[in-house]
Design brief:
This protein is mostly helical and 187 residues long. The chain has one domain. It has 7 helices and no strands. Helix 5 packs antiparallel against helix 6. This is HXXEE domain-containing protein.
Length: 187
Amino acid sequence: MINSSGDEAVGGAVTLGLLAAWALHDAEELVALPGWLRRNVPVLRERFPLVPEAVWRRAEAVDAREFTVAVGVMAAVVASAAAAGRLTGGRSSAYQTALDAFGLHGLVHLAQAGLLRGYTPGAATSPLVVVPFTLWARHRLRRAGVLRPARPRDVALALGLAGAATTVSHAVARRVVGAGRNAGARR
């Protein structure tokens, strides 16, 4: 399909596919993370003694409800980026940055699993879904003539976006779950 500017347009599989690939990946994390943290934080605390104790306490405090809310917040971020990509035929910088962040996020999962020499939540779908989808979508964007040239600052921006979106998602989740706990305590 050719769009009005003469470029090959990218379809929903490339743009909205980001949301679908993300949903598959985060389903793995939703199922695995709470139990994995419970089982592994004590071992990790001993293995990595230079990590501040506050980090381990925060990891132990994440429960399934909070994590589920954080995933829901992130779903809104990813859905917005995917929609922006769809509306612009893949040209949206928000979409392309989110796509890059998703792919880099998958590489981080693989690095974590390698560092820990074992499974970490997200490591199963990263090589099967996250990285292949990202490479395929970038190829389709390039073929359509809409992929921005990759620059080192784009990598930094994508990693920063992923980190910021994760931080905000968890902050919102802590507030929502905490507000629910406080409301229940007042009854």
